[in-house]
Amino acid sequence: MANTLKLPVGIENFEELRKLGFYYIDKTSLIEQFLQSWGEGIIFTRPRRFGKTLNMSMLKSFFEIGTDKTLFDGLYISGNKELCDEHMGKYPVIFLSFKGVEGLTYDEAFDAFVRVIGKEISRVSFIADSDKLTMLEREQYKGLTIIEDGSFVFSKDKLISSLQLLSQLLYKHYGQKVVILIDEYDVPLDKAFQNGYYKEMVSVIF
């Protein structure tokens, strides 16, 4: 009896899906499209439930330094050896999902924003001891990690500049361009519009 692959109901993590043997519709050709459009910024606009989050996770798994390259064995992109040799596992990646950045008030949404950024800052904590950074740069990173009462401490200005600072520090550490992936980027503004704090949220995001 042939093995039947499990359906990945509710699974949006590419690595988990591949390692646990779930059924996967190969969309790795998206990586080629991404690289052909390589620039300062790329926006993927697709309908809800189109698999954007899984695709973002797939891009992270492909580009991130230290990735498990066997995740792509047997998939379309593995046939493009030149591209894989040049780009697979070659970049520092910042991955953010704004899916949960919402609240009935601006303060609630701001706190949710801080949690998302803080989680990613914590994920790359190794740069606090990087010998590629100056003492000042290491202190700048540590300034992003201040926690009081179990929560990250961010002013509005600090939050606005945090992503740029983090990407600069990762670039300095690795000597390589940083890939920044933002999923559900429209959620904070949509929720802000619904709940009456759109102008305040725009001032944070833009």
TrEMBL record:
Record domain AAA-ATPase-like: where: 8-203
SUPFAM superfamilies given in the database record: P-loop containing nucleoside triphosphate hydrolases
Protein name: AAA family ATPase
Top-level taxon: Bacteria
InterPro entries according to UniProt: AAA-ATPase-like_dom, P-loop_NTPase
Lineage of source species: Bacteria, Bacillati, Bacillota, Clostridia, Lachnospirales
